[in-house]
Amino acid sequence: MTASDLPGDPFHRRLHHIAPAGLTSETTQTGGMRRRAAISGASVGAHRLWMGQTHVAPATVSANHHHGDSETAIYVVSGTPSFVFLDVEGDEPREVRVDTKPGDYIFVPPFVPHREENPDPEVEAVVVIARSTQEAIVVNLDALRWT
User: Which residues of the chain carry a pLDDT beneath 70?
Assistant: First the structure.
């Protein structure tokens, strides 16, 4: 879609403001975490972007999952979440854990199985997520492996 495909004057459409109270849990969920959508096709008519938050309670591990064809960018707001994936590029597949802190960014390529872990026994982990699709594609898995 280009600007000429948009109805009316593309330079005079309105901006959308989503306050924290406007986030919704009406998005695909994964066990052990809570997603809250802010920007999506449903909320603002986005065509190529989804954005929201994920919350992982203290001492909690999410289920394994991937995000289909979406590229996912993550910004750590609070807590010290870890992101775990299966590295299959060596001789033997091995789980890799990426530990983060507030201010860190993570990039998850399309179709990469992973999970979030919050090792802190007291502090909730909160991250902001942006995806390259208008909806939050979530495919929950039994394991980090495809088979």
Answer: 1-12, 146-147
